[in-house]
Predict the structure.
Amino acid sequence: MNDIASGKLAVTWPDIEAAARRLDGVANRTPVMTSRQFDARTGTKSFFKCENFQRMGAFKFRGAYNALAKFTDAERKRGVVAFSSGNHAQAVALAGQILGISTVIVMPADAPQVKVDATKGYGAEVVLYDRAAGEDREKVAARVAGERGSILIPPFDHADVIAGQGTAAKELIEDAGPLDWLFVCCGGAGLLSGCAVAAKHLCPDIRVVGVEPAAGDDATRSFHSRQLVKIETPKTIADGARTESLGTLTFPLVLAHVHEFLTVSDDELVSAMRFVWERMKLVVEPTGCLAAAGVLSGRLDTRGQRVGILLSGGNVDLKAAAKFFA
């Protein structure tokens, strides 16, 4: 089994190459952008991988499509169940729509309405649960999948999902050239672990950094203790990073390929959002600005270095964003 106990890693470079072939012509090859003002402020030469321009507005499409595209005909007929606060939900719904696979998405009742509406818009059935009352999304999703005979696709702890996410870093380095650092947001570490595998293959000396909200520092604590830490659902504006722990597949990949972790406060996150929106003219959601906030924090000395930054998504609740900026 590919897990912590076995010591075997779930995803390797050939898995990411195969995912890139499946995604070719389906996923958007999102632009890599630069900002002279960001570089002047940080002393870096930074390159932003803009996954806010990905289909359904976030990197999650890469992993969802890669996973569903591998289904046999018999598996496609069974349908898919997924659980997510928003972006994985939309990604699975859209991938299912493209591939002709029915989808049911388990979402928290307090998920951003824009993400719930978009998920339904891609043809998925949405089942809501109350996380404030202690309902467990994985148990709800497992029950629904069991009742319907469907296949459960988790948001990050799945080898095909991780491999698909890693194609974002592959493209970034192909387009920007060699990098000294790569900063990636971290919730459950599907994007971080996949990108770390790709980055380490293409740039062996690169330093990969995971950035998570200070209120949800489970990955940072797990990384430094080398023991998987689980916390209560964190309260942060970075709704895509409200995870309780890393996964049994992502954690070993993080330990093998990630150099360091940083945490940023919600205030730092809003400041990074303001910079990206105002100066770069890019609409990026709070979770999507975690990596940029990590570089802006200056907690790691990246001056004079070539830095890659993953802007992971742009599915913004505009009413909430107006409150943040106010």
